[in-house]
Amino acid sequence: MADWTYTVSVRSLCEFTAKRGSLDRRFTPSATALEGQAMQLAVLARRSPGYEIELPLEAVHGHLRVRGRADGFEADVNRLEEIKTIRGPVELIPDNRRALHWAQLETYGALIAADRGLAELELALVYVDADTQHETVLRDKFTATALQAAFEARCAQFEAWAAQEAAHRGARDASLSALPFPLAELRPGQRLLAEAVYRVAANGRHLLAQAPTGIGKTLGTLYPLLRAMPGQRLDKIGYMTCKGTGRITALEALHALREAAPAKAASDDAPRGALRVLTLVAKEQACEHPTKACHGDACPLAHGFYDALPAARAEAVLAGWLDAPAQRRIALKHGVCPYYLGQELLRWADVVVGDVHHAFDPHGQLYGLAQAQGWKLALLVDEAHNLVDRARDMYSTSLSLDRVRSAVADAPKVLQPPLRRLARELATLARAQPADYQPLKAIPDDLAEALQRVNTALGEHVQNHPLEVGPLLEFYFDVLGLQRLLDRLDTHSLCDLQRSTAARQPSPLDAPVNLSLLEDDDDGTTDVLLSVRNIVPGFFLKERFEGLHSVTLFSATLGPADYPRNLLGLPEDTAWIDVPAPFPPEHLTVRVAPLSTRYEHRQASLNPLVDVIATQFAEAPGNYLAFFSSFDYLEQASQRLALRHPHVPQWSQARAMGDAARRGFLDRFVEDGHGVGFAVLGGAFAEGVDLPGTRLIGAFIATLGLPPVSPLQDQFRQRLDAMFGADHGYADLVPGMQKVVQAAGRVLRSVDDKGYVWLLDQRFRRPDVRALLPAWWQM
């Protein structure tokens, strides 16, 4: 460690050394990144012609190389500026955040003074309001000597931590370079997957990997990416999941990999398991005081957070294994918030396990911090067939008229006029539309203006009442999100109105509507939902994929390759691999029943359908799952089976099942058991369920998984046809077949399993449908 250099950004250096006092997460309206860029351009337009922007600056102090880009320098007046875009008055910026801004500006001042040989310098902290473009400028003059002294003190404060991090990085990389596979050997399909993951990581590309259940996808992706980490100089790996169960599997695999790592790869004192693994926990799960505001005056775990953070951080990185229980234990020991401790530890972890929203949501912490810190980040996305729908949800939102009426009732009098106007405009639009469902090219100008006024009024209210929490703040988040998506509305998303019923009569159980709070032409009896529904999330995700070193998306049901590539916005050179199944084809008997489960034929299908189930059960007694397109169809089939074949044991998924009820459903699938469990395709039991051996020997799938016919579904199909051409099946057939294959994948869980899949619809023999089923299925 005698000859080492640690590179740190100005921002990271100052955040580590200058943050003090309490955590303050009171909501204040903030500017977006795009607004920040626009405000910087607005400031630039007011400066002299010789004004320099985005100045790259760098200096070496001891073992530290400090880098950054200063916002602007005006040489004729010898002034360096740091520009921060805000909303509202400067007085609302907490003192410790303003101190951080000054620390950054002073550090840039030291760098430019040394670079240009300046004896003194004027520093200007410029706060620009995103709404008014008004500048508030805080100025001070410093000598180069004073700036350099402060810079050196900051570096000295950070250098011990940097030495520790450099040693950790060296030990980690040496350990991973010699990392053995934790099991006896890679399985054949697992080896193909691992080689593909390693290649794309080495080439800085992305990969779509369709790999069946049973090959060991978790280890088959984590192991090669960890081995690639030293050679590619990756800062972090993110293992992103679409389902909570995926995180458990990932942590089990990472624990095995840490245990397999060489204990003393870099030096004699290198700790065993040098790899730091962090689980990102949802705030709702980690918060110890959910009724308190995230502020030092309200929550004891926010008070003095940044003063207690160094000791908590030091203990955490020494521990290395930072799942949710470990984060909570360390946080409470040091009197800090477990959730925000986890957010801080994100900077120092090597592998991050969490939900896909951390990487792909507009406010995803992992991606946002990676871009701000310049990390070289590679991602693995498990069960990636769910990412299209998950990403659509991230970039969709809606607002109901009833929600606005409730906000009117909850709001103080000063906010009621703009809220009443918004309710009136929505009610007027609801009555004027010709049908209960209506797509919109854009919202009417009067409604757009009303929405903007509500956002402005609520923004001012929140600024003046920063400790306020509750329904009104949540409503503000909703209307602000709606406004932002409407501002970016294009062919990738659909704006529409859905009227529940025309002039509906309130139920006696409904809370009474206070008509005096509404406008004269809103009688409180008509509801409408205004929505922005994302259809092609690739419009938003394309930039994210471009900013990541490598992304591997894997699932048993990804194909065809063009579907995720087009809808998610992946680059054209994204690689594709379809890993062969590890099962001998004869282990799975696949049969098609000559039935029709179309909606108009369902009553006629019930008798022959349950007869197929009963006959198969008689020929091969055991545990089966039967999947249906809806609860109504499920209940009809269950009742008909009980009527015609009462000797066949059965149990059913209910419309609303809690954790205990779901466990009870699965507990019926015992070794060598006998019976049929009825479930909904695409529901809780259609994927992510592991019933190996004789716990499950077969599945009946009585649907193609197609979405119900509706005006909304027609709009989705028309929009996708316009963008990608007709007959692609993106709107219905492809996602439907993914659900079918996922459900069928419950049957064979290991190479020794044997079982049956019955496809209960004659359409499964159509060439276009057959092409979307696994090629190794013998039908």
TrEMBL record:
Presence of keyword Hydrolase: yes
GO MF entry, a single one: DNA helicase activity
Keyword Hydrolase set for record: yes
UniProt enzyme class: hydrolase
Annotated ranges, domain Helicase ATP-binding: 176-442
Source superkingdom: Bacteria
PROSITE patterns linked to this entry: HELICASE_ATP_BIND_2
E.C. number: 3.6.4.12
Listed SMART domains: DEXDc2, HELICc2
Keyword annotations: 4Fe-4S, ATP-binding, DNA damage, DNA repair, DNA-binding, Helicase, Hydrolase, Iron, Iron-sulfur, Isomerase, Metal-binding, Nucleotide-binding
Family, similarity comment: Belongs to the helicase family. DinG subfamily.
Protein name according to UniProt: ATP-dependent DNA helicase
Organism name: Pelomonas margarita
